């Protein structure tokens, strides 16, 4: 699997407060404009993420969430808008191919692990244009590097995990060919499988 096709993620935990939910340009040391996304869910702790655009970055879908060390979902932080609304820039032609116009599409293979975790209690129910996920933790797929500050809705245990699932479309290569699994419709619209990154955070060892 070509890891260069995916985003790189670093995490810095800050104990502070965010009072707004905004997306603003932010200056960087190399004078490039860089987005700063701020998400505030309550009065918890602030997680700071740095997303770096790689050489093969191409509109990936991704989700970020928090789990306990035992694997219990605590809170979703961010999900890209196409997954949150089930409305993609390239629609579903219903024959395993893509439409070149925006259209609703059911693509559970986009972020299968997060969708499964999110769907505990509502198994089989995907977001759709009539029942999208809340705006509070959704946003666009950004085409450049960006930073994110996200305040959790409540205090967290001293130790927890932060996870990110990333899936980039159209990342075929010599091994992951578009006819590798001819009878698997979800594979044909997902290409290489999603990757999951995870880090354990210990607030006693900042």
Give an overview in words.
- The chain has 206 residues and is mainly beta.
- The protein has one domain.
- Helix content is 8%, strand content 34%.
- The chain has a five-stranded mixed beta sheet, with no helix packed on it. A five-stranded mixed beta sheet has the order 9-6-5-11-12. It has a two-stranded antiparallel ribbon with strand order 7-8.
- β2 and β3 (33-40) form a beta hairpin.
- 24% of the residues are buried.
List the defining traits of the structure above.
single chain; 206 residues; mainly beta; five-stranded mixed β-sheet; 3 helices; disordered N terminus
Q: Could you state the oligomeric state of the chains shown?
A: single chain
The class by helix and strand makeup works out as mainly beta
Order of helices and strands, N to C? EEEEEEHEEHEEEHE
Q: Level of helix content?
A: under 10%
Tally of individual domains? 1
Number of strands: 12
> Major beta sheet, specifics?
5 strands, mixed
Q: How many helices does DSSP assign?
A: 3
Strand content: 25-35%
The side-by-side strand order for the widest beta sheet comes to: 1-4-10-3-2
Low-confidence spans: 1-24, 27-31
Q: For the residues shown, what is the average pLDDT?
A: 77
Net shape: globular
How far apart the termini lie comes to 32 Å
What's the alpha carbon Rg, rounded to whole Å? 17 Å
């Amino acid at each position: 699997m070509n890891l260069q096709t995916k985003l790189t993620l670093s995490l810095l935990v800050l104990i502070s407060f965010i009072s707004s939910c905004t997306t603003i340009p932010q200056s960087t040391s190399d004078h490039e404009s860089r987005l700063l996304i701020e998400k505030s869910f309550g009065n918890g702790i602030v997680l700071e993420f740095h997303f770096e655009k790689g050489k093969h970055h191409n509109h990936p879908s991704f989700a970020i969430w928090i789990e306990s060390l035992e694997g219990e979902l605590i809170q979703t932080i961010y999900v890209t808008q196409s997954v949150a609304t089930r409305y993609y820039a390239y629609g579903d032609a219903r024959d395993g191919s893509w439409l070149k116009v925006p259209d609703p599409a059911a693509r559970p293979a986009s972020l299968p692990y997060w969708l499964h975790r999110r769907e505990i209690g509502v198994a089989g129910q995907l977001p759709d244009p009539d029942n999208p996920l809340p705006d509070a933790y959704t946003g666009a797929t950004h085409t450049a590097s960006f930073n994110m500050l996200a305040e959790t809705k409540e205090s967290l245990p001293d130790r927890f995990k932060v996870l990110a699932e990333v899936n980039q479309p159209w990342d075929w290569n010599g091994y992951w060919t578009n006819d590798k699994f001819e009878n698997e419709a979800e594979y044909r619209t997902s290409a290489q499988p999603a990757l999951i990154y995870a880090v354990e955070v210990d607030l006693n060892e900042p």
